[in-house]
# Entry
Amino acid sequence: MANTDKFILIDGSSMLVTNYYGNLPKALLFEKDPEKRIKLQSQIMHNDKGQFTNAMYSMMRAILKIMAEQKPTHMMFAFDTTRDTFRREKYPEYKGNRGDTPEPLKEQFANMENMLEEIGFKVMYDDRYEADDIVGSVVSKYEKEIPSYIITKDHDYLQLISDYTRVWLVQTKQETADELQNKYGAEFGWNKKLVNIPDKAFEVTPSTCLKEYGVRPEQIPDLKGIQGDSSDNIPGVKGVSSAAIPLLAHYGTVEKIYEAIDACEDEKARKALAATWKENLGITRSPLKAMMEYRDMAFLSKDLAMIRRDYEIPQDLEAFKINFNKEKAKEQFEKYGFKSLMEKL
# Structure
């Protein structure tokens, strides 16, 4: 491996969705009435065949910029294909709070995946696994061979951070990313001109993960086990959120917290434990009762939040090498009417 090699792994679903909403006509973005929304869809960017292209165009523009600035040698995109993955079998309400994907976005998923493959990128998806499981499996397999960077908006991915892997966590605004980067980079003389990070992203390392989110990367599933995650409809332990970080700082894992609870033989011992938590960990409202009541939910929630790393990857690292085909890119850009991107080639 050359010492300039660099692997960028992109959460394709997250990127496409962000670019869809980021490039919608304002009238449609703020319209609440479903019927009016459908009428306004004709204003969404589309090609001469009437295929919607607003998300694809913005995402492709972002990818070309990332390639020009980051110069990766290897790249991959992972997409979700369905919400009915193995997690739904364990917990049917998983992601049950999300509305249907709008039709103009739905059709762009298949077209974007196709376009990326045509141009020469590695694209992966599976009906049983989510995009983060695929990325987690790929990065775990190759991170010691090649420095790896994951681009996503999704905090679940923080658990994949290691000495070899960074997460470029995309923020809603550039100012937020700059603030975070300055907050943790100032002590090392961080300078935006010197450090090359994609737009709106904040680079999370093992130490910044602990400082900013209160837990080490490998504790992210434990944190969600207790706090839950409303975006994925993961329940966690009702009424216990602020106590999660001090408990995990002390015990390390959800399992170890329950070992301490189970070691209490009676009510008196449990009261003593709650008093110790208050005194030593600064936990004012005792989470003990809730932790006991929702034990099953704590373990289930941790399991749902845990990225799997056992997805079968038959290819070797060579399969992820960028094989960008300019002619194919021109064809695709013509097909979808991306005139301004032609010049960037």
Q: What stands out?
A: The chain has two domains: 7-153+314-342, 219-305. The first helix runs from residue 12 to 22. Residues 7-153+314-342 form a domain with the Rossmann fold fold (CATH 3.40.50.1010).
